Amino acid sequence: MFTASVTKCSTTVSSGVFSIFSIVIVIVAAPCLVLCSTSDELRALLEFKKGIHHDPLGKITNSWNHTAISTTADLDSCPNSFFGVICDVNSNAVAAIVLDRLNLTGELKFSTLLGLKMLKNLSLVGNSFTGRLVPQLGTMSSLQHLDLSNNQFIGSIPDRIHDLWNLQYLNLSNNKFSGGYPSGIRNLQQLRVLDMHSNGLWGDVGVFFSELRNVEFVDLSCNSFSGELPGNPLNVSTLGNTVRHLNLSRNLLGGKFLRNDTLALFRSLEVLDLGGNRIGGELPSFGAMLNLKVLRLHNNQLFGEVPTELLATSIPLQELDLSGNGFSGSINAINSTTLEILDLSSNRLTGNFPELSSQSGLTTLRMSNNSLEGSLPSEWLSFSRLSKIDLSANSFVGPIPPTLFSLNLRHLNLSGNHFSGAIPFPEAKVGELLVEPIFAPLEFLDLSDNSLT
């Protein structure tokens, strides 16, 4: 399952905010269309096993051997007693190899798998395999699902991968692949998921996108891609209609990457993550992106005012992260009823604390490191879903509203302001300050660098 998650450029699988796409490869019962020799397939599997040097759980060591095959007749059958091997019931051929998260190590020879003519699913997720993809991998045209994520594979991605014309799911993320992206990827008309994040890949992202067709999930984060999205409708018309999740965070994108004419082409986008690049300029209107739920533009070089439609009800945003930029001006109101996470920290915002909609669904509000001033609203009981508030390093004045502590907050940071007056401890518990939490369920509270008594 793929999710809208914050990319950290690590080799760990990140947890998600909400699901965006899931894919299941169903092994369809079909006659073998080639001359299948299952004894040849058995030899191929045993050759593949030779590349596995360490099997701490013993799953492969104990089952991928001749002793697991009881009779001579079984030598001519698909070895379904091999752990992780799935056989097609009609063709009697190997249809899937799934060896996920077994802590296996070794240098794999993908050429040993070329004899598995009916292989549809190859999944080796979360091991420590090394090795290179061979160009001959393109001859395995039955492959629909290829997941090599979270390993240590090296080298370039061969251009012949575009011959895998049945491929629907391709995940090469969290490896050590390098070089340019494979050419001719436009041939993969069935591809729906493309995940190559956290590698050493480079190239012009605009040219690459002009190659993609019908893809719904794209994650190229934590690489060295540059350039900008193509503005020509002819180049992105198919992709613009289908892509729902686009993550290009932590690359080398720069300049005025975000333009009205380009964004208008991506009408189906639900998740757009461009954080951690060098994108500059003012934000365009996002009014045409009526399906956008997550927008992350943190740590770029954007400036100007925050577009009002991003904080209004016209776009169903659930998460908006504009932190670490140069946005200026004031935020008068946050009228969105769908926003759950809002991060405007580390900008140049001025003015008073914005008015919040009484129907606000905010759970996280971060506006730290700005130049906001004035006093906070006295009434907070309407915002019962809030669990994290960070307003530190501003110029707020006046008392801290007692109703803030009536919320189920887990994180509250008001440090580095000009708040004054008494800390609004519940009177009955002042004497219990040192022996039990008085603001449960607070896990983090920072009121330092104020003028509190």
Automatic annotation (TrEMBL):
- GO cellular component labels: membrane
Domain (Leucine-rich repeat-containing N-terminal plant-type) ranges: 39-88
Q: SUPFAM superfamilies from the entry?
A: L domain-like
Keyword annotations of the record = Leucine-rich repeat, Membrane, Repeat, Signal, Transmembrane, Transmembrane helix
Which residue ranges does UniProt annotate as crossing the membrane?
A: 16-36
The name on file for this protein is Leucine-rich repeat-containing N-terminal plant-type domain-containing protein
Against PROSITE patterns, the record matches this protein to: LRR
Q: Which residues form the signal peptide?
A: none
